[in-house]
Design brief:
Elements: H1 5-28, H2 36-58, H3 62-90, H4 104-110, H5 113-122, H6 125-128, E1 133-134, E2 137-138, H7 139-159
Antiparallel strand pairs: 1-2
Length: 162
């Protein structure tokens, strides 16, 4: 089966939409409240999906297709970095886990954005908790694998022979 570049970008966008659908189901159906790092992973999924969707619509060719694939991969890389940090926090010994901080909503309302980002990426106790597992691995682990697959697919889609 031969996929066009447009179909490749559309598949990435659809995968991101499905991932967000599962995230919303986990939140509202399973009652799992997302921590601040989970929210930033969602931003990475959304950014990757929106970029891929835009490129599926506009169907860039030649050099523009390569640039488009790299942009999609960079969005996924940013989300993947957040996932990796989240998994790291989850595997810290209990005595090294940062204390729980204020909620993301409160921080966004009261602190400058630079301080919010610095605080969120330090992590907190709530980010180190594992509230859901599949095959013994946490959601950030699986999200990280998804980001790796999205990066690989975006780069393959960009640099393959048309």
């Amino acid at each position: 089966m031969h996929l066009s570049r447009r179909q490749g970008f559309a598949a990435i966008a659809a995968t991101c939409a499905a991932a967000m659908g599962f995230a919303l189901y986990a939140q509202h159906g399973l009652g799992l409240e997302p921590c601040p790092l989970c929210i930033f992973q969602r931003v990475g999924i959304i950014a990757t999906g929106v970029l891929a969707g835009v490129f599926a619509v506009f169907n860039p060719q030649r050099l523009a297709a390569k640039l488009a694939g790299v942009l999609v991969a960079l969005a996924a890389l940013a989300g993947g970095a957040v996932s990796a940090w989240h998994v790291y926090l989850q595997h810290l010994p209990k005595d090294q886990v940062p204390a729980c901080g204020p909620g993301l909503d409160f921080m966004l309302e009261t602190l400058p954005l630079s301080q919010v980002l610095a605080t969120v990426f330090k992590g907190s106790g709530e980010c180190a908790e594992i509230g859901w597992t599949f095959l013994g691995q946490s959601m950030p682990f699986w999200t990280g694998l998804l980001f790796i697959a999205l990066i690989a697919t975006a780069l393959w889609n960009a640099f393959r022979k048309a």
